[in-house]
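Justification of computing resources. Each target in the renewal requires a structure prediction run like the one illustrated here; the chain below, 357 residues long, is used simply to show the kind of job we budget for.
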Amino acid sequence: MKNYILFGLALLTAFPLGVYAQDEDEEGGEVEMVAKRKVIERKQYDLRTITGHVIDAATGQPLSGAMVRSMGIDGYSALTEDDGTYTVKVPTFVTSVYVNMPDFNPVVLGLIEEEGQKTVKLYPATFKAEYTQQTNVLGDQTATDMKYTNAINIKDEIQKQLGAQAYTITRNGTPGVGSVMFLQGLNSLNVNAQPLVVIDGVIVDQQYGRTMLHDGFYNDILNNVAAADIEKVTVMRNGTALYGAKGANGVILIQTRRSKSMATRITATASAGVTMKPKFLKMMDASQYRSYASELLKSTGTRITDFKFLNSDPTYYYYPQYHNDTDWKDEIYQTAISQNYGINVEGGDDVANYNLW
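Resulting structure tokens:
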């Protein structure tokens, strides 16, 4: 018997068991075993104390209850007092703090070596926030809500929503003729500087070198993607981290619409737009240009005195050739109305979902 007891004690020593607390049932029946939580020790850092003042940028009054916390590591924060002052201990490697308060835009404050920091001014939320809690490393911006756009090419809608984030140049006023988009600017005269296009996770070959049947037209593969069939477009200015050298000129991530419910839903959309005739500078007509050209010829020292375009005799053989007065701006440009109609059917079952546009 003594040997068995010694063997049991040896097992307990070799394999330590968790400590449990027993809660006995009031009726004296069952006994519930509750595991005791293990206490996680927090890593200790060298700390330093910083102090500062938070005020309302509009009124200059102190703000109480503003949260001041360290950037990059959680657990080091404090609230401002009634007079707007705060005192918080942060790790020595922390270089900035994040200050926010309801109804105010947050501010990221860079720390200085001294204990006393600069005064933080919080602007009301009616103004656009300049800082966010997380830094946008990829530099991406998103364009959404394209159901009712009248754009034939998605590049036009991206330009309208994101502005300078994606600069689009249309080759002429003809809809669908193709356009050029730049995210990082025109950084080379020899190498293509247009961004990489990714549709639903698949890299699309833009076929920039494809020769078109009509001279002056350029191939644009995005003309085959209906703008109304796109749910979201993300413009990523810094895409080298994900796509390598292909994303050096930026990346355009296009996400098409997907069915979000198994219930069948039919949606009809109709939109219209007006493209106004552009304004032009006043130019010389044909008769004014003939007079201008004759004055230029006098300054060249030419001895020729008989110019066909200066003969104003209607019976002259070359008169119709040099006396046309067609205003090509009126012939080419005009105010245009564009219309777009679509029907969307979406739904699904236990096997698959569908979305038809």
